[in-house]
Amino acid sequence: MTEIINLEAIQHLPKGTEFFVSDLHGEHGAFDYLLRNGSGIIRTKIDEYFGDDLSHSDKDEMALLIYYPTKQIALIRERRGSVYVEQYLEQVLPDLVKLLQYMGSKYTRSKVRKLLPSQFSYIIEELVAEIERSASKAQYFQVMIDKIVQLDQLENLVEALSEVIQSLAVDHLHVVGDIFDRGPEPDLILDRLASLRSVDIQWGNHDVTWMGAMAGSLICMVNIVRISARYNNLSLIEDSYGINLRPLIAYSQTHYQPKPAFVPILDEGNITEEESNLLNQLQQATAILQFKLEDALIERRPDFQLDHRRLLQKINFKEAKIQLGESSYPLRDFNATCINPEKPDQLTSEEMEILEQLRRNFLASERLKRHVDFLFEHGSMYLSYNDMLLYHGCIPMHDNGDFKSLRIGQALYRGKSLLDFYEEQIRQSYRNPTVDNDLATDLFWYLWVGECSSLFGKAAMTTFERYYIEDKATHKEEKNAYYRLRQRADICEGILEEFGLEKESHIVNGHTPVREIDGENPIKAEGKLLVIDGGFAKGYQKKTGLAGYTLVSNSYGLELVAHKAFKEEIQDLEWLYTHYEDY
């Protein structure tokens, strides 16, 4: 009876705040700052509650204390001394309690209680209960604070209150794909996500390559190393995940010399010539290994209809040219030393040994296993949630708006059934990491490059052409019709209906950066579809003109928040004091 009453009452509480983000691309600093400030919600709540009772500078100082409590306290101590710190924290403590009470008022006491750290749970509950104290209980409140100070727990309590306020700003987080890519710290993002009480993930194309690697896919492993070498990000593999790449690096340095087409791309910073050469050679070696493995995969999977991408078979090795359609193109910076022209997909004995070592090293990474477990436990190809349909890439379509089909054997998959099929298969593969050439494992790669992949959404991935062919016309990757058709309300209504949602629902989409700098609108199809990839990745920010979006859904409706480029200096509070209005 009590539970029935409780559930009925909860339905009449204001809606909790949901955050939607996508395409984090390993940019932990920007993501962490977004969570700490609630995408601006915490500062707004400070304004709402305190109004003119606090000065603008006092509100800024309180906001910074909530975002970075440990750093803020240390900075105040450095600037004004320990005596002032204690006085300041005693003064601000009641205001933090009031703000916590205000932000928690839309939730049940039980829900708020679960957010409280066990060390301070009772104290915080009592402080919240007595903050609007009567004269008869004023002494009780003050004695609690005095005792906290006496026990030297004031700083710890303020830090705990700040973290609870951060948690109250975001009731549930949706990550619409691509935690991984060129950024350096996807591992820290996953650690942060694992600490949240309520989160879901819709897998992106970069995510599934890491998932595929831990499912035993050699081509996914090689692709990860190649991309990491391209963007000077080997430390993620070697240091963060403890995966030994030395045999592969030694092999690449033996067989390949640095070439202009393989110069690593740096989003920031500089590296030595020696480091650049190592990344260059490793990128070449992994590219050739990738094309060999891809050729063999395509041959054993005719249902994938990728025969036109068996590019090693189209090379005239004597003339160093490749035949694509009716045209022949000279190859630049192409090293065929490790390729048998008679059987170009054949791995050498040295390569087979190195790949087997690489597999063992990947599968032995406990931290990566823990992170991929988390992705499978909290992730999916798509999600229907509160009248919203969330997916990373696209729903593959023909030009006329019909769903594009993938035929496997006698079965046809399209629309919802296609995404369900992908998810069922890759989950099956992850349960059997020692099997590396079955359909389920090969589908990880199809999701990366396939024409009917909902995560890729293009006709072909032109990695080979970009490396080896000068003519940029061959580099073009034709997008699926979905990206043109998603502008239409009737198309979006058809997608929603396919996934069992009402026409009045919304689609939340990531994957393609919104070029706001060119006037592109992230809100499409008369408001039915929202694209929230605004460019967390530093490499895309010149194209987008901003640094990501947060879609916020609460009891007031939907709000799309655009972000400026995150600067590492934000975490230096001295810098942030003078630039706060911008962030």
UniProtKB/TrEMBL annotation:
Q: Which gene encodes it?
A: fbp
Q: Which reaction does it catalyse?
A: beta-D-fructose 1,6-bisphosphate + H2O = beta-D-fructose 6-phosphate + phosphate
Record's family? Belongs to the FBPase class 3 family.
State the name under which the record lists this protein: Fructose-1,6-bisphosphatase class 3
MF terms from GO for this chain are: fructose 1,6-bisphosphate 1-phosphatase activity
State the UniProt keywords alphabetically.
Carbohydrate metabolism, Hydrolase, Manganese
Lineage top rank: taxon = Bacteria
The catalytic activity of this protein is classed by the Enzyme Commission as 3.1.3.11
The record's Gene Ontology biological-process terms are: gluconeogenesis
Pathway, per record:
Carbohydrate biosynthesis; gluconeogenesis
